[in-house]
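Notes to self, Retropepsin-like domain-containing protein:
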Amino acid sequence: MKHALLGASVLMASSANAEPLIIDNGRLFIQARINGVATEALLDSGAESSLFDPKLAAEAHFGAGEKVMMKGSGGEQAVEIVSNVRIEALGRTIPAAEVVVMDMTDLSARLIKRPTRAIVGREVFDAGPIRIDLARSDVEALEAGSVPLGVKLPLTEHGGIEAVPVRIGKTEAQAVVDFGNGTGVMIGKELAEKMNLKVVGKMKGGGIGGEIERDVVRLPSLTLAGKTFRNVEASVDATSSRAELNIGTPILKHFVVTADFKGRSAWFAPVKGAGH
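result:
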């Protein structure tokens, strides 16, 4: 666990209703129950659907589903779409979710780097506002209509995932708020080429479908909710990225973030002493 990486005082105090986060390699894990079966789950605001390993699906008595090929950033992978799965997380219940069942062995070992058999995504965020405080390693489901501290930004849907406005240098862009991304910033190939960003290196990446190698460019500056980060390295997403930018926990750890998917807004309260 890499809590020291995220340590700092913040503008917003945690409440007594907050639940602990496990933070490992920049990724966030919570406790959940799937059809009543307790499990640790990766919390992923960038996941259009929740995903579960076949062994957990069997243990939780999932019904029969539809077998399809899912296209991911690393290629295609055989999966099963299953309906009427009950997800309980952060004190909320999603009684009949449509989820993805897939072999998560490679994803766990190669990308997440922690044994993982559950990823809870959009369904949990759609159920109501969620405050995520990386500095304090906790998370809390808030009541609808709560007004958090911080800079309020509009959420815009891009292919089933949510993005906020940012600025790269003087260029306005949309960036996916992706708590499932523990590795940093990704930029779409079209935007990188439009901005004439030079390749400064290579890095391995890729999620569903296997590993790929991506070019790395350097953003002169990235401004989110009034906070500017300079000389930010970003891997180039040559696939259909759905949004121009993807920002993960290395950027999001500098804020207490409250995401309200239903209310189409997110709030960013800066962590004192963090940022560039």
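- The chain is about 10% helix and 50% strand.
- The longest strand covers residues 75-89.
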